[in-house]
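Figure S7 source data.
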Amino acid sequence: MSQWRARRRPVHNSDMLATKEKIVVVEDEKDLARLIRHALAKERFRVTCAADGESGLKLVREIKPDLIVLDIMLPKMDGLELLRVLRPETAVPIMMLTAKRSEMDRILGLKLGADDYIVKPFSIGELQARIERQLRRAAAPAEAGAKTSISLGELEVDFERHETKVAGKSVHLAPKEFAILRLLMESNGKVLSRDKLLELIWGHDQSMEIDTRTVDQHIARLRRKLGCEGARVLTVTNFGYQVKMR
Ligand code: CA
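Tokens for the predicted calcium ion complex:
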């Protein structure tokens, strides 16, 4: 699925110097975009900028960058929406850039799979340091980096490979089913309400008639696909869903 997942190549200093890693910056404030591009280009990066969400999406699909920097408030398609579309397509680090300070946005961004979050105004030095850290993490062997898979009982979910296994056997899940399962697994036993799941997975997509029953239908399919062993960890409360060992 993610044909341009983070490269797992050995990291040597000479290698790092020789490689120009590609970064796409989606930022509509021209001066800031120029500043970021200038600063990052002085390092070893090849930087390309887009000024709105739609062209950002096109650019990312075309360039297949090693890292993406996404502003949240963007014309045409905002950064969170773009993140929602991109996250299932690529495993490369995505960093959110925003003037919004509210805790909700931060949580939403991270839940949608952003790797890091920087609040404006920030120093270019800080941005560079965080980009370096994300690229190091992406290049490091999986076991040294962040959690890329979670197991619970017989259920095992690998976020990087987009793979789900029950008792060692692969189960094919549709993207939305996988996204729901991932959110639940990452919520660590916390109950997520139907409304919350709807908001996080479907966002403000009004092209289809969707409501909380859509969530229930997806969960029902998910349970069926996971079978008895896998579905044991997916529990229903009056309020929503959670995963935990019963
Ligand atoms: Ca903006």
